[in-house]
Design a protein that fits this description.
Oligomer: single chain
Shape: globular
Number of domains: 2
Helix content: 25-40%
Number of helices: 11
Strand order of the largest sheet: 2-1-3-4-5
Radius of gyration: 18 Å
CATH superfamily of the largest domain: NAD(P)-binding Rossmann-like Domain
Largest sheet: 5 strands, parallel
CATH architecture of the largest domain: 3-Layer(aba) Sandwich
CATH topology of the largest domain: Rossmann fold
Length: 268
């Protein structure tokens, strides 16, 4: 089975995905992209083997069966709503926004749409999902990022945190995944994905540290359940284009897309 694919956003996630699709993934065909700056987008797409149009966000679902969202959270609804209404496969990277738009999940049941959240930087998501089929007692995640990777977060600005002045590790947030998603919409998609795979956002505990001693986005996850108790440590290399995003995230999207048509799929 072959799918047409459209990608919203040409940043640290979207552009590598577009290039991979253009290079060729069996059963998938890139048909459109969308970006805020169409002139800049055209320049980024100049090297593609097969040129595709740059269209408005709302038009992506009109031309493609699979819609990948990798844009700032403010534009989420403009991509998500048409995709769900048209019964498309919707692959969101702004997972934190999804927590406030769970009505889209119910609407997807009615329209036949599917919402597929890529693993992203969350190593071991399969294990969390499997453990959640039994009884989970607790799920916690401690995230450490270079201070520069946390700039612009609403929580940082609301609390007046001077990230440039941090010279040693500082915990700047403790709370559940709901609060983390609101305070750090560009940083905590991994925590939201963890909460949705496990015991829910209200019971998933999150800590965020601004840590000048690390050069990688580090997540330490602890899961305690009846079937298993395990701990995961992820050290993601930040993207040069956007330090809030790890290099593993676009690779995860590519793997998720490949899994749509692959005759062999590994993992749950």
């Amino acid at each position: 089975m072959a799918y047409t694919v459209a990608v919203a956003g040409l940043g640290a996630i979207g552009l590598p995905v577009v290039r991979a699709l253009d290079a060729g993934i069996d059963g998938l065909r890139l048909v459109a992209v969308s970006a805020r700056d169409r002139e800049k987008a055209a320049a980024k797409l100049a090297g593609l083997k097969t040129p595709v149009p740059v269209v408005a966000l709302a038009e992506l679902a009109e031309v493609a069966e699979v819609v990948v969202e990798s844009i700032p959270a403010a534009g989420f609804a403009e991509v998500a709503e048409p995709a769900i209404e048209r019964g498309r496969i919707f692959m969101p990277l702004s997972v934190g926004v999804l927590l406030s738009r769970m009505d889209l999940v119910e609407r997807a049941r009615q329209t036949g749409a599917r919402i597929l959240v890529p693993t992203g930087a969350l190593l071991g998501l399969d294990a969390v999902r499997a453990a959640a089929e039994g009884t989970l007692h607790s799920v916690t995640m401690v995230t450490r990022k270079p201070p520069a990777g946390l700039k612009g977060a609403p929580h940082v600005e609301a609390e007046g945190i001077d990230l440039d002045a941090i010279v040693e590790p500082v915990c700047i947030f403790r709370g559940d995944a709901y609060a983390a998603a609101k305070g750090f919409p560009a940083n905590l998609n991994v925590g939201v994905a963890l909460s949705l795979a496990g015991i829910g956002p209200e019971r998933t505990e999150i800590e965020i540290w601004a840590d000048p001693t690390v050069s990688r986005n580090t997540h330490r996850i602890k899961v305690d359940g009846d079937a298993a108790r395990f701990e995961l440590v992820i050290e993601g290399i930040p993207s040069e284009e956007n330090p809030a995003t790890g290099k593993l995230t676009p690779l995860s999207v590519i793997a998720a897309l490949r899994g749509l048509t692959s005759p062999l799929r590994i993992g749950t």
